[in-house]
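re the bet — no i am not wrong, look at it urself. input seq straight from the record:
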Amino acid sequence: MAEQASERIRIDATRDDCLAVVLDFESYPTWANDVKQVTVIERDDQGRGAKVEYRAAGLGKSMRYTLVYDYSALPESFTWTLAQGEGLRALDGSYRFDSDGETTRVHYDLSVDLSLPVPGIIKRRAAGKIMGTALKELKKAVEGRDR
């Protein structure tokens, strides 16, 4: 069964600044500690990653997974679904951006279902760690970039 988690954080930057970082998938390994490699497999007609493969550290090992992105609700939000992944049945989620001009509240929702036999409490902790770390690292990357 999939574990659901939600987190949010306020970033001292515009929505456009947040989107510039979060949509630059190839740069993830420079700021997202658990992401080791990113390959954009397909791009949409605006050049954004439509199908993206990741290699990330997780549960004490390296995992590969591919996500498919839906940008139909941009600039307010975008979603992704798992296309394939090692040890995963689901890794679906969304980012939502609520902007008030110079600051942006970023909401991160994630649904994770591991195909490995792992107790529910471990899955919940893993989902929470992924999200908390991802948002803190995103905040640092966005607020630290030259605008």
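see?? The radius of gyration is 15 Å. told u. also Strands lie at 3-11, 35-43, 49-58, 61-70, 77-85, 88-99, 104-114. so pay up
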